[in-house]
């Protein structure tokens, strides 16, 4: 079985697209309207796919979603933290280095989803 994508209901498509394009560095692969007022965007190339869906029946219920995170590999955690701060965002938690082989930290997307940036050392 192959994992296809993760779907996130968003309150503001433009704000969420900006975050996933600029901060996570995913490009838009598809963007379309399903019906009046309901828009879907797919981001990512290859195996990594994130689906954003925005519409009146897809309201975000909580701006602090717990228990779910999306992880993305970066070359250097320290450089990514600097980049995050330059963009005016806050690190939600970390950085953590539980062993010599991995280092990571978390930020929140505009909808409260935890985004983990991981450096495999």
TrEMBL record:
InterPro entries: Glyas_Bleomycin-R_OHBP_Dase (IPR029068), Glyas_Fos-R_dOase_dom (IPR004360), VOC_core (IPR037523). Residues 2-120 form the VOC domain. Pfam families: Glyoxalase. This is Glyoxalase-like domain protein. It comes from Desulfosporosinus acididurans.
């Amino acid at each position: 079985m192959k994992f296809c994508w993760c779907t996130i209901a968003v309150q503001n498509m433009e704000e969420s697209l900006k975050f996933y394009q600029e901060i996570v560095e995913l490009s838009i692969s598809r963007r379309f309207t399903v019906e009046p007022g309901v828009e879907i965007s797919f981001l990512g190339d290859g195996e990594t796919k994130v689906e954003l869906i925005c519409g009146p029946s897809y309201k975000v219920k909580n701006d602090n979603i717990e228990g779910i995170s999306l992880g993305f590999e970066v070359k250097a955690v320290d450089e990514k933290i600097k980049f995050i701060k330059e963009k005016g965002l806050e690190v939600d938690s970390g950085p953590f280095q539980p062993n010599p082989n991995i280092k990571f930290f978390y930020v929140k997307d505009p909808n409260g989803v935890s985004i983990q940036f991981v450096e495999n050392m």
